[in-house]
Amino acid sequence: MAHFFLRAAGVGRRTAFVAASGSAVLLSGAGMAYATSCKEERDKHKILIVGGGSGGLAVAAQLQIKGEKDVAVIEPSENHYYQPLWTLVGGGGLPRQQEPTTREGRHALGCPLAQGQEAPVLVHNMGKVMRGEKPTAVYDGYTSCPLITVRTEGGREGGRGYSSLLLAEFKYGGEVAETFGRVIDQAEPRWAFLQLKKHVFPFAYWELFLRGRWFGTRGVIPPSFE
């Protein structure tokens, strides 16, 4: 349902998408040929990211911002979608108790913009591990599920409809983590939240998040882990 509304608003997909991530190499379209020879690409680049979805591009962009220039992203598709299925990324497959370091093997579903809160943790911990140090940054599992609701006048099919959105936000273990909870009741679907979904989130995704400039509920303010 969310994809239907976004497609109608014209924000669903961009063709031949190239992330503005500095000097990172994006191997798209014909990238499948490169993907079959990962070892060769790994020998050429210090960091190889397999998958140019929202997580891969966000991590690549933040690595660029951190000064890591030797990065390659392998992505076989020429299309990039605003709402990919998998939204969180992990740096390995360690036991579940290490989830806060983003090195877990299990991944949650949710809003891709939630990665803006997770990607800096992964980038910071990746740098620590590459230097032979222990990862110290912690990710609390924050994710968001914007749920669009549709109603019709009088409850009749074909009646004039209007929409609102329930903005559900939570952390690991289902703990509620509402951004606006101190001001309004987020348990109530609201028209204003729908406008965030239709207008603010797409802009933040395309223009900020994929460029490593969006940090979840912090907006454009980057976190500090030191």
UniProtKB/TrEMBL annotation:
Gene3D superfamilies xrefs: FAD/NAD(P)-binding domain
Domain of life: Eukaryota
Annotated GO biological process: sulfide oxidation, using sulfide:quinone oxidoreductase
InterPro entries the record matches: FAD/NAD-bd_sf, Sulphide_quinone_reductase
PANTHER family: SULFIDE:QUINONE OXIDOREDUCTASE, SULFIDE:QUINONE OXIDOREDUCTASE, MITOCHONDRIAL
Cellular compartments per GO CC: mitochondrion
GO molecular-function term, one example from the UniProt record: FAD binding
Protein name: FAD/NAD(P)-binding domain-containing protein
